[in-house]
Specification:
With 285 residues, the protein is of the alpha+beta class. It has helices spanning 2-60, 76-83, 96-104, 160-163, 190-200, 244-260; strands at 65-69, 109-117, 121-128, 133-139, 142-148, 154-155, 171-172, 210-217, 223-229, 235-238, 264-268, 275-278, 283-284. It is rod-shaped, with a radius of gyration of 41 Å.
């Protein structure tokens, strides 16, 4: 009986030792896998941090990318060159107000909107001035063509398509001797630009038949207009009101006068009547 009890105690002790060995092995495996998990977590964290650094931090501390929209007559290179003296620093230090002011100083730019998109993108939406009429000014001893927009601002563009657009009338005689940024024509001539703008909005291309509109100052500060047609020797003298009715009246008068007197030099539409001056100095009513 005592032998049996003794064997039982031995078996119980062996079981305890085996249990302790199993627990030790499980703890060792747990620590091993836990270490692997921690290593993987550290590795993933390092990769994520590197991704953040390269994708967001590094671009934001470099020179930002300029993305333009709305350009027609200007190029991205021209506007970037205009802001080059102050286009420095990174995305964080990029001053949108200063850059917008600098671009707006370009004569052919009407307005600018700038948005910053993290981490390195600057969106620049430009609205260019649209030409309503054209004139000529002196610049450094040479005569250069300049455009006039709806707000009567003078601006230069090098677009040859605008110069060849016969729907944009040429105006001569404006008292503008030089060109500076944002300069406008004198106030008393601004109503003429408004009238031209309305005529250009009509479906008929009236200005395609007009070579030039000459402004003739009057003695007491007012002015009249001398219209030079494309296909006629006669010049048309009228007052400063220019609209569709005047142009239609001019076209009819030209047809009638040219059929009667092909050598007519000048047609006067002022004062509600039509008179004609011939090349030899005679007058026709």
């Amino acid at each position: 009986m005592s032998d049996i009890v003794q064997e039982s105690y031995i078996d119980i002790d062996d079981f305890g030792r085996h249990a302790e060995a199993d627990n030790s092995s499980e703890k060792s495996d747990y620590k091993f896998f836990r270490g692997i998990k921690i290593f993987i977590a550290i590795l993933v964290g390092a990769l994520a941090l590197e991704l953040v650094l390269y994708k967001f931090v590094k671009p934001s501390i470099g020179v930002p990318r300029l993305v333009y929209s709305g350009l027609k007559n200007y190029t991205e290179e021209e506007l970037t060159a205009a802001i080059a003296p102050i286009y420095r620093g990174n995305w964080f230090s990029f001053d949108t107000n200063t850059i917008a002011s600098k671009i707006s100083a370009v004569s052919g730019i009407e307005s600018v909107e700038i948005e910053k998109h993290f981490p390195d993108k600057i969106l620049i939406n430009v609205k260019e001035r649209e030409s309503v009429a054209m004139t000529f000014v002196s610049d450094g001893g040479r005569t250069v063509p300049v455009q006039i927009d709806k707000n009567c601002v003078l601006f230069e563009v090098e677009n040859t398509e605008i110069a060849a657009d016969n729907s944009i009338p040429i105006i001569s005689g404006l008292p503008v001797e030089f060109l500076s940024g944002g300069m406008r024509i004198p106030s008393k001539y601004r109503s003429l630009i408004e009238q031209i703008k309305k005529i250009r909005e009509l479906p008929q291309k009236y200005f395609a038949a007009i070579s030039e509109i000459c402004v003739l100052p009057k003695k007491y500060g007012n002015y009249e207009l001398m219209i030079i047609p494309v296909n006629s020797k006669a010049r048309v003298l009228t007052d400063r009101v220019l609209n569709e009715d005047v142009l239609q009246y001019m076209i009819v008068a030209l047809e009638v006068v040219n059929s009667i007197e092909p050598d007519a030099k000048q047609i006067d539409l002022r004062y509600g009547s039509v008179s004609c001056r011939t090349s030899d100095g005679g007058n026709l009513e």
